[in-house]
Amino acid sequence: MRLLPFMLGAIASLTAACTSTRVFPIPAGIDTVLVVENPKVIVPDFVAFLCAAFARHGIAARVVAERPADGDLPHVTYTAIRSWDLGTYLTDADVVVHRGADVLGSANYHLIGKGGLSLMKWQSVSTKLTPMMDELLAAYPSVENPAP
May I ask the CATH architecture of the domain 25-136? Predict the structure, then answer.
């Protein structure tokens, strides 16, 4: 009987997916960003998700092949890493908003222990990253849920 609580705790810790996010929100006053393509990222629909997340907060996003030469245009760089366990799933993502050489804000997502035995590790990119992007864009009310 003493072993039961220990076993239940061990099972719970093995099946729980813990995530770590670190977000430094961008300041208000941006209406357009350029999303700089990263050809090394092979996570399906990642760029589409980023553009939709910015649009949901009233910021137009346009995808470009390289960083803009004009330092006044805010641009977004990103990385996304997948792992494999009976299928691929997102384990890490970084989104950084720049203006010239300055970093305006950033967000980082990390799936601790690559998700362990949790079935939640296979959730969609949108499900995993929407809360992080909402925090990054906290200064911009959501178009879907406008502030009162």
Answer: 2-Layer Sandwich (3.30)
pTM: 0.81
Residues 51, 85, 46: CA angle, nearest 5 degrees: 5
Output the CA torsion 137→106→135→41 (10° steps).
90
Give the 3-state secondary structure of residue 104. strand
Q: 10-residue block means of pLDDT along the chain (148 residues)?
A: 56 58 94 96 93 96 87 91 83 94 94 64 82 96 64
Rg (CA), the chain: 18
Residue spans per domain, the chain: 25-136
